[in-house]
Design brief:
The protein is of the alpha/beta class. It is built from 14 helices and 19 strands. A hairpin with a 4-residue loop joins strand 16 and strand 17. The structure holds S-adenosyl-L-homocysteine, iron/sulfur cluster and FE3-S4 cluster.
């Protein structure tokens, strides 16, 4: 395995020089930046890095496009709907651009990494000044500098096939209790429906000392609920040539001092193992929570998805996790309507859902992504049938969740208060160790604090509790 390619220190310093250059150009002007993220947690983490760079350039952040001097959309390509939304939002900016031609409109992320979209933006969306792909993210300061000084449109998507890792650039996170911490980038799995490997490049892991350093910083800054991110965290370290895998990394991070919880996502069933569950069970700071997408309950569909595990293997993994951590919270992703899915295949998905009783499910209707193998598969199932299956799945899961939520009635739990709730009766939101949503009431509650609560009532989406 080749070692990950880290962007050189000189190149990073060079970007800092551009940050200073932009700060000088904009000196004395009140500049505001607006950012919007369309994609997953990985994309949110990327936006935080761009916000960090913008902040160093002297921008303040705004949450409306109306008073923004710089607008950034960080896009997602995982399903058609995500792409449509991004195009719709960019289209809607043409009016604003006519009124205020100086506003800079930038587009980045997974959708911007695809040549077909780049051509479309070049031709039909003249309001976009800057476009860069996922591999070029660390070069953002130099790209923005060119937009500002050369007064022309800049497009940069020619990232390396394998991408690079950039350490040492600034990050601006939201204040609060939760933070993302990327441990690796990219994906090698090429599930036949999925665009991610094409837009994020091959797997590359950060060095453990870099991850540990960032965790120290997060804990020192007061973050309490930290999620380790990667498309497939279980293959962490395979490209490093060091003697460390994801379970080892968890143990190492668990030793960092401080009162915090570690979560991680996403785990791929083909690489999850009893060793991982042992590490989770042994480490008090690692939340007993597992997001383990199974996508389909049919071996035939799994094979055509190139998932490389069977339903039987998945069942054994769940049994092993529950044996080691009986109170573990489980969630999963499911795709309904993959090309060729029969009623029988779908029934097997329903059966796995009923039998496993997940706490939370993320369900998606299959969306054809051009360039992926599944886009060429024959797909005769009518949309109406797929929709009906989708709704049946939701109903099945709702029944399970109602039962599981009701079982919390009267229980005492430790939760992390993480925000303001909407209703007046329960003014704060909190999360259980398993990441379930709780609305809390009681004296002296504070965001960012762990507290003991008792569950008073439950609904499908939320537990309601009072501080003890
Ligand atoms: N790396 C993660 C998930 C990345 S995408 C993993 O492997 O689990 C998040 C979810 O989107 C996937 O788990 C899958 O359920 C869904 N998804 C991905 N491509 C899709 C497509 N073409 N159509 C519908 N859902 C899709
Ligand atoms: Fe996509 Fe599969 Fe990689 Fe997840 S593991 S990002 S679903 S290719
Ligand atoms: Fe979307 Fe890219 Fe994430 S395609 S789901 S933003 S990795």
């Amino acid at each position: 395995m080749s070692a990950p390619r880290t962007v050189s220190k000189e190149q990073i310093q060079n970007q800092y020089a551009y940050i200073d250059g932009i700060a000088n150009l904009l000196k004395g002007r009140q500049m505001r930046a607006y950012t919007h993220t369309f994609g997953c947690q990985q994309n949110e983490a990327d936006t935080e890095r761009i916000r960090g760079m913008l902040y160093e350039m002297g921008f303040s952040m705004t949450d409306t496009v109306d008073d923004a001097d710089f607008i950034l959309f960080n896009t997602c390509a995982v399903r058609e709907h995500a792409e449509d939304r991004a195009f719709g939002n960019i289209g809607a900016l043409s009016h604003l651009k006519k009124q205020r031609p100086d506003v800079i409109i930038a587009l980045c992320g997974c959708m911007a990494q695809q040549q077909k979209n780049v051509e479309k933006i070049k031709k039909s969306y003249p309001q976009v000044n800057l476009l860069f792909g996922t591999h070029a993210l660390w070069r953002f300061p130099s790209l923005l500098y060119r937009v500002l000084t050369e007064k022309k449109r800049v497009f940069d998507i020619d990232g390396e096939e394998c991408g690079e890792i950039a350490e040492g650039l600034p990050v601006l996170r939201e204040d609060g209790a939760k933070a993302w911490l990327s441990i690796m980038y990219g994906c090698n799995n090429f599930c036949t429906y999925c665009i991610v490997p094409y837009v994020r490049g091959r797997e590359r892991s950060r060095f453990p000392e870099e991850i540990e350093r960032e965790l120290h910083e997060l804990v020192a800054a007061g973050y309490k609920d930290i999620t380790l991110l990667g498309q497939n965290v279980n293959s962490y370290g395979k490209d490093l040539g060091l003697d460390i895998d994801f379970a080892d990394l968890l143990r190492r991070l668990n030793d960092v001092s401080g009162d915090f919880l570690l979560r991680f996502m996403t785990s791929h069933p083909k690489d999850a193992s009893p060793k991982l569950f042992e590490a989770m069970a042994d480490c008090p700071k690692v939340a007993r929570q597992l997001h383990l997408p199974f996508q389909s309950g049919s071996d035939d569909i799994l094979r055509r998805m190139n998932r490389r595990y069977t339903v039987g293997e998945y069942r054994r993994l769940i049994a092993c996790a529950r044996e080691k951590m009986p109170d573990i919270t489980l969630s999963s992703d499911i795709i309904v309507g993959f090309p060729g899915e029969t009623e029988e295949d779908f029934e097997q998905t329903l059966a796995l859902v009923r039998e496993t009783e997940f706490d939370l499910l993320f369900t998606f209707l299959y969306s054809k992504r051009s360039g992926t193998p599944a886009a060429e598969y024959e797909d005769k199932t009518p949309a109406k049938v797929k929709q009906e299956r989708f709704e049946r799945l939701l109903r099945t899961q709702d029944e399970i969740v109602a039962r599981r939520q009701a079982a919390y009635q009267g229980k005492r739990l430790r939760v992390l208060v993480d925000g303001a709730a909407k209703g007046p009766d329960y003014p704060f939101t909190a999360r259980t160790e398993g990441n379930l949503l709780v609305c809390v009431r009681g004296e002296g509650l504070q965001i960012g604090q762990f507290t003991e609560v008792e569950i008073e009532k439950t609904s499908l989406r939320c537990l309601f509790a009072r501080k003890r």
